[in-house]
Write a structure and sequence with these properties.
The complex is a heterodimer of chains A (119) and B (108). Chain A has 119 residues and is mainly beta. Helix content of chain A is 0%, strand content 50%. In chain A, the strands form two sheets. In chain A, strands 2, 4, 5, 6, 9, 10 and 11 form a seven-stranded mixed β-sheet that branches. In chain A, strands 1-3-8-7 form a four-stranded antiparallel β-sheet, with no helix packed on it. Chain A is globular, with a radius of gyration of 13 Å. Chain B has 108 residues and is mainly β. Chain B is 0% helix and 45% strand. Chain B contains no helices and nine strands. Classes of the chains: A mainly beta (119), B mainly beta (108). Chains A and B meet through β5 of A and β3, β7 and β8 of B.
Chain lengths: 119, 108
């Protein structure tokens, strides 16, 4: 059974940092692009970042460039999202998702972890 | 930045056909995927690569594309289809995954 399990969410003050993790199982992790997608309360889906199978390519939405870093550890089937200089507008449920190719759909999703940025 | 435009809401009676559109400049050159999201749940893909249906998704769900518009069609709508639906592409010119704003399907 395919599973993606996110962790690391919580309450953080504006300007603070948080590191999200996503542990994958049930599929060949090293063969998939990994993504982070977020959803602010009551809002739609917003893609945040992608990382290639071997970690050699990463892409980000403009609003997080320079603040967020996506990384992966294929030996441990983990993908991370390091979030720095957090803003109120980063408050959202963060999902990790996997896709076989960068232009493909994402067949596997986690259940999400809530990040709340507030003073 | 690339924008995908969806109607905020669509309402349909049970048994009828619902169509949800997704407009984007030159969307004909992009591979369009559709996700269904129910409250409190993660998204689930219902159509990928414009018109392919994953295993386990009812045949009532279909996808098409014409001109600058992609369409998700749900035939014989059921109460269980009530959800938010999002279109998505990979915009290669900007190296970005782009989601439409989402459409809330209400089954009357």
């Amino acid at each position: 059974e395919v599973q993606l399990v996110e962790s690391g969410g919580g309450l953080v003050q504006p300007g603070g940092s948080l590191r999200l993790s996503c542990e994958a199982s049930g599929f060949t992790f090293s063969s998939y692009w990994m993504s982070w997608v977020r959803q602010a309360p009551g809002k739609g889906l917003e893609w945040v970042a992608n990382i290639k199978q071997d970690g050699s390519e990463t892409y980000y939405v403009d609003s997080v460039k320079g603040r967020f870093t996506i990384s992966r550890d294929n030996a441990k089937n983990l993908v991370h999202l390091q979030m720095n200089t957090l803003r109120d507008e980063d408050t959202a449920v963060y999902y990790c998702a996997s896709r076989p190719m960068v232009y493909a759909h994402a067949p596997f999703w986690g259940q999400g972890t809530l990040v709340t940025v507030s003073s | 930045s690339y924008v995908l435009t969806q109607p905020p809401s669509v309402s349909m009676a049970p048994g009828k056909t619902a169509r949800i559109t997704c407009g984007g400049n030159n969307i004909g050159g992009e591979s369009v995927h559709w996700y269904q999201q129910k409250p409190g749940q993660a998204p689930v893909v219902v159509i990928y690569s414009d018109s392919d249906r994953p295993s386990g998704i009812p045949e009532r769900f279909s996808g098409s594309k014409s001109g600058n518009t992609a369409t998700l069609t749900i035939s014989r709508v059921e109460a269980g289809d009530e959800a938010d639906y999002y279109c998505q592409v990979w915009h290669s010119s900007s190296d970005c995954v782009v989601f439409g704003g989402g459409t809330k399907l209400t089954v009357l």
